Amino acid sequence: MTTTRFAPSPTGRLHVGNIRTALHNWMLARQAGGAFILRIDDTDAARSREEYVEAIRADLTWLGLTWDREERQSARLDRYEAAFEALRTAGRIYPCYETAQELDVKRKIQLSRGLPPIYDRAALQLSEAEHGAKEAEGTQPHWRFLLDHAEPIQWDDGIRGAQKFDPAQLSDPVIRRADGSWLYMMPSAVDDIDMGVTQVLRGEDHVSNTAVQIQIFTALYAAGFAAAKNLPAFAHEALLVGREGKLSKRLGSLGCDAFRERGIEPEAIIALLARLGTSQPVEPITDRAMLTASFDLATFGRAPAKFDEEDLERLNAGIVHQLPFEAVAARLTDGMDAAGWHAVRPNLAHVAEAAEWWGLVTGPITPPAFEDEDKAFLAQAATALTWSDNPWAALTTALKDATGRKGRALFLPLRQALTGMDHGPDMGELLPLIGENEARARLAKAAGTA
Ligand code: GLU
Question: Are 403 and 421 contained in the same domain?
Fold first, then answer.
């Protein structure tokens, strides 16, 4: 069964880049009728906060990205301990004592010699006596995973194609801190094994992590930690950048709260993020099943995906124009019914603007001052107004025949007299909502005959 996961660290709110990763994993799972796991990566106790866990759940719920299972790394420490022991027994983990400053100096020296800043494995050279001395001092080691340099690491990436890494060009990763806490690298691989994750889709900032994790998977299987299965399929998507094409700070803080405040519909975010950076057209598609069915990693490009807030606004308007009354009823002003929603919907960029247009129906409205000729025309309109299924068509046809007016001269004074505005929703839909008596009163008032 296809199983994907979204694995945020609860050290902050979700931003648009995270939302995109969550969405794509959700779509992969839903498309295959598989499972989507929300995995809370909370091994960093100092920086993880419960309020962020709750905010992550709330944001995913608002976006409609339901998950089938929730897992928490903090509840799985026993498994990491077991994996650690298995790797240690297999000789794939070794203790190191360098301080952060010492490592920094090493890196600077390497860089100044034009060498890549790869960990030199000095800790592997420590003698028994040196280890003993460290222990006697009470210095706790941190732990590195010993990469196997024998063969290149390769995988067929769902987006990037054939990938090949020389493990000798990577540092043996620190997987456990001196205080016993876990870094990201090993727990994630252990979880992907235990949770039967079949597809790992994440940002391309994780490409070199994947190289390392492939070795961790393989080492865990070889150590008998879990029955050997296939590795998950990996895919890394190009990162999201701002409109200027640069990694933008703003995107890092743009999340569901900001979208909600600006009146952006979840479906607009979904429609944009589902296809941004792919060869498929970004369109205001409200049918999520359709979006999901068309989701295809093969359509993803390698270039960074440009997130443009103006595109999002345009898409939002396109989505709002399609939203059914039931989807928005709870957010509309009292008294606004389905007919009212349908009348104003095409004029909205955001649902909240419905209230302003609805105010034209409920009144009071302030018509402009008219020239005498228009006043006479409006007085004629007040008299000509009859009520039927389509009073607007009846009124304008009658006035056209009676006065010879057409186009703007025919329609604009009527619109202004009836709504106080030069533009707005289709009068054919608005007039029945205004009602016969009120409409006649507005026309008479504008004509100065009321
Ligand atoms: N917690 C990691 C992150 O947010 C998860 C990465 C992954 O998908 O493995 O970057």
Answer: yes
Residues 354 and 377 in one domain: no
Instruction: Work out which ligand 1 atom sits closest to the CA atom of 188.
Output: 9
> Does some domain include residue 243?
no
Sign of CA dihedral 133, 135, 139, 141: positive
396 inside domain: yes
In which domain, by residue range, is 385 found? 363-447
7 CA to middle of ligand 1, Å?
Answer: 5
Please indicate whether residue 41, judged by its CB atom, sits closer than 6 Å to ligand 1.
yes
Within-domain flag for 225: no
Q: How confident is residue 245, by pLDDT bands cut at 50, 70 and 90?
A: confident
Query: Which of the listed residues 311, 336, 361 is the one where a domain comes to its end?
Result: 361
pTM for the whole structure:
0.92
**352 & 405 share domain:** no
pLDDT value of position 426: 95
376 and 331 part of one domain: no
Q: Residue 186: its pLDDT value, please?
A: 98
Indicate whether residue 8 lines ligand 1 (CB < 6 A). yes
Q: How far does the centroid of ligand 1 lie from the alpha carbon of residue 235, in Å?
A: 13
Cα separation, 4 vs 43, in Å, equals 20
- Strand order across the beta sheet in which 93-96 lies: 93-96, 142-145, 174-176
First to last CA, the chain: 73
Mean pLDDT of 233-240: 96
Into how many domains does the chain fold?
Answer: 2
**Chain-centre distance for alpha carbon 97:** 41
43 lines ligand 1 (CB under 6 A): no
Q: Is the CB of 188 under 6 A from ligand 1?
A: yes
Please give the backbone phi and psi of residue 409, each rounded to the nearest 5 degrees, phi first. -65, -30
Final residue belonging to a domain, choices 361, 384, 419: 361
Amino acid at 24: H
Establish whether residue 202 lines the binding site of ligand 1, counting it when its CB lies within 6 angstroms of any ligand atom. yes
Mean pLDDT of 14-21: 96
pLDDT in tens, 44-80: 999 999 999 999 999 999 999 999 999 999 999 999 9
Q: Is the CB of 7 under 6 A from ligand 1?
A: yes
47 CA → ligand 1 middle, Å: 15
Instruction: Determine the 3-state secondary structure of 3 from DSSP.
Output: strand
Q: What percent of the chain has pLDDT over 70?
A: 100
Determine the distance separating the centroid of ligand 1 and the alpha carbon of 207, expressed in angstroms.
11
What are residue 94's DSSP bridge partners?
A: 144
Is residue 69 situated within a structural domain?
no
